[in-house]
Amino acid sequence: EELNYLPPALRVRKELESAREAISRAQTEEAVRVIVAEINAQIRDLNRLGAEGPPSTLMPLDVEVVVERWRAS
Length: 73
What we know:
Blueprint: H1 8-25, H2 29-49, H3 63-72
Helix pairs in contact: 1-2, 2-3
């Protein structure tokens, strides 16, 4: 059954990598803001609830900084 289980902290790290790739391909500022909001929600949930496995050292992304970098690129 090809199950693949990652501890929550590692899963969110992978999601963050995917979010950063999606941001680099985003066509609009609104899309960037949606992507950041979604990954930030996951990070906040992880940090708030705690998790098994390695501890989370992730902090939510600063949406304005991300948007500014997206504009510059």
